[in-house]
Write a structure and sequence with these properties.
- By secondary structure, the protein is an alpha/beta fold.
- It has one domain: NAD(P)-binding Rossmann-like Domain (Rossmann fold, 3-Layer(aba) Sandwich), CATH 3.40.50.
- Helix content is 47%, strand content 14%.
- The chain contains 9 helices and 9 strands.
- The strands form 2 sheets. A 7-stranded parallel β-sheet has the order 3-2-1-4-5-6-9, sandwiched between helices. Strands 7-8 form a two-stranded parallel sheet.
- α8 links the parallel β7 and β8.
- α1 crosses α9 and α5 runs parallel beside α7.
- The protein is globular, with a radius of gyration of 18 Å.
- The two termini are 32 Å apart.
- The chain binds nicotinamide-adenine-dinucleotide.
- Nicotinamide-adenine-dinucleotide binds next to α1, β2 and α5.
Length: 258
């Protein structure tokens, strides 16, 4: 019970990594609020009484969500989006073609064909969402003189990701923001860290084709993708007092890929 008497809020916790973090924190004794944009998904994680429905990219909805909280010890900014199913099909097609080609003639051409709204939505959910939730959380944590914030970045931020420059940019922005806010609020007794997972098996990545998935294993020394529980374990460490002297850091569970 490493989180006894703690109150936590995990965004995007109706699926995958967020759900695993919410359930792990609950098992460790925390009272966990489960945010998601999808009500039914949020309610399925720990029950309807813990669910808080809000779009993290909407500052009004975020402010309303936080106004229902009296205390907050841990915030996990986890909500995220990747590609549409159509786009995944295209990514798989190009990635599979490139595995066979030498020289490569199937070009990604993502940036040159991306429209404004696709770029903006990616930045809005990840980067705006992290800022909006952090701003509201600090209104509660500052007067408490304590708190922990954990932001989900990605190895895409550290190494780049050819098929998703908008995602890599959003996740890199989150890393810089994490380090800045960690310095900003350290004197308030609040710690801020990031987790940058590598490929992790969740609904977000389930449309990656078998062929692309197999090829990715060659880049991972441990020879497997991460499970959501691997990322939840990293979050538990950062949320717990075991990480009392850890702030402004990025912990990257990636099987040795980076
Ligand atoms: N799966 C991976 O390989 C991987 C790797 C690195 C980082 N990440 C990051 O981890 C986080 C969780 O990813 P996951 O794989 O569990 O994805 P997921 O798709 O399984 O879960 C994401 C959840 O966020 C919710 N969500 C989306 N937009 C939202 C919004 N605007 N407001 C509130 N909730 C919203 C979704 O409804 C969903 O329940 C994301 O930030 C993702 O970018 C994932």
């Amino acid at each position: 019970m490493r989180l006894s008497n703690k109150v936590a809020l995990v965004t995007g916790a109706g699926s995958g990594i967020g759900r695993a973090i919410a359930r792990r924190f609950h098992d460790e004794g925390a009272f966990v609020y489960v945010n998601d944009i999808r009500a039914a998904a949020a309610e399925e994680t720990l029950g309807a009484d813990r669910a808080l429905v809000a779009d993290v990219s909407d500052s009004g909805q975020v402010a309303t969500m936080f106004s229902s909280l009296e205390r907050l010890d841990i915030l996990v900014n986890n909500a995220g989006v990747a590609e549409s199913p159509e786009r995944w099909r295209e990514v798989n097609r190009i990635a599979e073609a490139r595995l066979e080609e030498s020289p490569i003639t199937s070009h990604w051409d993502v940036t040159v064909s991306m429209d404004d709204s696709t770029w903006r939505r990616m930045i809005a959910v990840h980067l705006d969402g992290t800022f909006f939730c952090t701003r509201e959380a600090l209104k509660i944590m500052n007067p408490q003189g304590s708190g922990v914030i954990i932001n989900l970045s990605s190895t895409a931020a550290l190494a780049g990701l050819a098929d998703a420059p908008h995602y890599a940019a959003a996740k890199a922005g989150i890393l810089g923001y994490t380090k800045a806010v960690a310095k900003e609020v350290a004197s308030r007794g609040i710690r801020v860290n990031a987790i940058a997972p590598g490929f992790t098996q969740t609904p977000m990545t389930e449309l990656v084709s078998d062929k692309v998935r197999s090829a990715s294993l060659a880049t991972i020394p441990m020879g497997r993708w991460g499970q959501a529980s691997d990322i939840a374990a990293a979050a538990l460490f950062l949320a717990s007092d075991d990480a009392a002297y850890v702030t402004g850091q990025c912990l990257s569970p990636n099987g040795g890929a980076l």
